[in-house]
Amino acid sequence: MNIAVNTRFLLSDYLEGYGYFVFEIFKYLTNKYPEHRFIFIFDRPYDDRFVFSQNIVPVVVGPPARHPLLWKFWYDVKIPAVLKKYKADVFVSVDGLCSLTTTVSQCLVVHDLAFIHYPAHIKKSHLYFYKRYTPRFLQKAKAIATVSEFSKQDIIRTYKTDPDKINVVYSAAKEIFKPVSGEMSEEVKNKYTEGKEYFLYVGAIHPRKNLVNLLKAFSVFKKRQKSNFKLVLAGRLAWKKDTFIQNLKRYKYRDDVVILGYLDEDELVKITGSAYALVYPSLLEGFGVPVLEAMKCNVPVVTSSNSSMQEIAKDAALYAEANDPDDIAEKIMLIYKNENLRKELIEKGTSIAKEYSWHRTAELLWQSIQKAVD
Q: Does residue 208 fall inside a structural domain?
């Protein structure tokens, strides 16, 4: 079988979200199924580390598809030509976009419908594109995969999609995430937070991640507890970052907020494993991988009570109303003041984390790929 894969998010300078998903799943599938040929379709020159099996055929198809007009051109003009040339049996696309012009069967992965629920948090051109074409993509695809039951039900409710067409494949955290030693933890704190304990947020600096309310919650914590704790933000500066940075300059506790930007995997593991707790108050997530990463590192989690997080983390996290900074602060203070609760969350989180793996996700996605071909 010839399996074409949209690999345009395998970027040499950084991997996140879709890129991690593609990398981990197809590193497993290409090795497990050597009898099949995988055509990796890039939209720019690729790093050789992404060709990790002998049954991979890398293909570069420009131009780089980085805005809606080029998305349309890339998926509806360039992709069909590649699928025809390599006699693809199926095209797998993990970014919620597929080709409307090819006759080749497609397996589409839709992580969430955040653009529907938070339209102000996306560029207008992107919003128009997603609203116009997402229902067509869902109809065109032979099989659909998503990362939580929450997202599956959201797709069904919003677009009246046939439930039998959608498989829940979940997501996972990399095996590299694990507890760090006390010595390493002290080294990290000395390097980044003047030796102080810290709460950690991991993810892009983006409006949907609810960082303004996180800062408000941190203010409440600082006022009430008179603590020297720091707040560390680890992630790429994304859309509307300038507004956030300007607001941060006027923030009362600016000296206690550390922005690290995008980190490589090894450093992110150290930062995560050394945190006192992860605070992840995102407004909406299809899965919420940082929550699982923290649990694998024996770090307790405070996250939002909406979307998929309660489904994924179950009783191994504290949940706060995302739009209520006081509630977020209350949950942070619970972990800060109650060491027994903190230990209990760590123990539960360790068990929850074991339920998810990239091998499991890859096998579930393989079922969706087969469904598309059949």
A: yes
